[in-house]
Amino acid sequence: MSASTPTAAAEAPPFGRDRLFQAWAVVSGLSLAGDSAWFVAFAWTAATVADPATAGLVLGAGTIPRALTSLYGGTLADRHDARRVVMLANAGRIVVLSLGAVLATTLGISVGLLLGIAILFGVLDALHNPAASTLPRVLLRSDDLPNGAGLMQVAGRLARFGGAPLGGVLVAVGGLELVMAVDAVTFCVVAVFVGRWLRPRYPRELSSTGSFRRDLAAVATYLREAPPVRAFVVSLSGLNLFVSPALAVGVTIHVHRSGWGSATVGVADALVGVGAAVGALFAIRFRSTQPARTGLVMLLGQALAIGVIGVAGRPVLLGACAVIGITAGLASTQLSGAFQQLVDPAYLGRLGAVMSLGDDVLMPVALVGFGALVAGAGLALACLAACVGFIVMVSWALVRLSGAPSVAAQHDRATD
């Protein structure tokens, strides 16, 4: 059914001395900073060349092609060397950005050009992200995977904090063309690093069905035969559908109704981001033998914070946002590492793509549904419903993870 990748020549060093993975986190952070700068500049440009409705269409244009092609990207990640897929996807991004910069300079920026770039980027994201998500599994020892996830999250948070204001400065100085050039350079750095220095240390089983349909059927069979993994994937795909609407819609509505000003929304958002970075940084030094259960239990604090958003005064609301951020950083580090540990390596790309569909397909529905619930039942009840739903899903997952192996068992299986 599957063929193994070549066995790596070097064993991974202890995580604290793993310079290769640390360098990969820095390079990935650099690319994410470029992406953050690009998104800010892209959104600003769309708002200046189109009416609000068209600008919204342009900003969301990449979501549908990303959702439609993500499962195919997952099959590619499980069928071929993930490094090559990452390099090819980055090469595609470089071509799109370079061509876009040339067209914008010679013909001017138009809605059609922005739509084309957004669609192509959506497809390339769908090809890149599943492959990139499998790389920790071939670089780190099994019990170091949560630490690796924490380091990547810290790098990502810092990149976004720095990249967003950088995008605003660059678009003001040189327009979208300059931002495209800068982002293209970051993708070049990633491609060179992956191609020249990033070498797998551990083998990973690859799919050999040769068929997109059979690859997906194999995933369905695997989930059917592995209940703990199925419960874990379902919970990871669904939990964000409770917290994101409460933060994006609930906090904004509560602040507006209370007359606290838009600055309060900005402070609340910053507290979530800073809290998540702090939580992830702390989690790097924290090691659990059952990271899946540990991460899910940590999220119960997040659920309670969601419940008070609709009724809290300003200090409590800001405190709840900080709790949501810190627990997100702590828990997501454990859960991301546990995903790498629990899932059979042959299915990492496809299941990563399945989970990404939650944000691309279900999140818009969740946002609309939460808003409708606020309109019909009030903000307090909507936040309470999100809290209860969150707790029910976490409890359901914890019960069904009772058969999941420990880190030690996972490590033994990985080194057999």
Describe the overall structure.
The protein has 416 residues and is mostly helical. The protein folds into 2 domains: 10-200, Up-down Bundle (Growth Hormone, Chain: A); 224-415, MFS general substrate transporter like domains (Growth Hormone, Chain: A, Up-down Bundle), CATH 1.20.1250. It is 82% helix and 1% strand. Strands 1-2 form a two-stranded antiparallel ribbon. α9 (240-258) runs antiparallel to α10 and α10 packs parallel to α12. Residues 1-9 and 406-416 have low confidence and may be disordered.
Q: Helices and strands in order, then pairings?
A:
Elements: E1 2-4, H1 19-49, H2 52-60, H3 63-79, H4 82-107, H5 111-139, H6 145-196, E2 205-207, H7 212-225, H8 227-238, H9 240-258, H10 262-284, H11 291-308, H12 314-342, H13 348-377, H14 379-400, H15 407-415
Antiparallel strand pairs: 1-2
Helix pairs in contact: 1-2, 1-5, 1-6, 2-5, 3-5, 3-13, 4-5, 4-6, 5-13, 6-10, 6-12, 8-13, 8-14, 9-10, 9-12, 9-13, 9-14, 10-12, 11-12, 11-14, 13-14
Proportion of strand residues: under 5%
H-E string = EHHHHHHEHHHHHHHHH
Number of domains: 2
- In the predicted model, the low-confidence regions spanning at least 5 consecutive residues are 1-9, 406-416
User: Which class of the largest domain in CATH terms?
Assistant: Mainly Alpha
Q: Roughly how many Å apart are the termini?
A: 19 Å
- Helix/strand structural class: mainly alpha
Q: What is the tally of beta strands?
A: 2
CATH-wise, what's the superfamily of the largest domain? MFS general substrate transporter like domains
Please give the largest β-sheet: 2 strands, antiparallel
Radius of gyration: 21 Å
| Arithmetic mean pLDDT | 85
Predict the CATH topology of the largest domain. Answer: Growth Hormone, Chain: A
The CATH architecture category of the largest domain equals Up-down Bundle
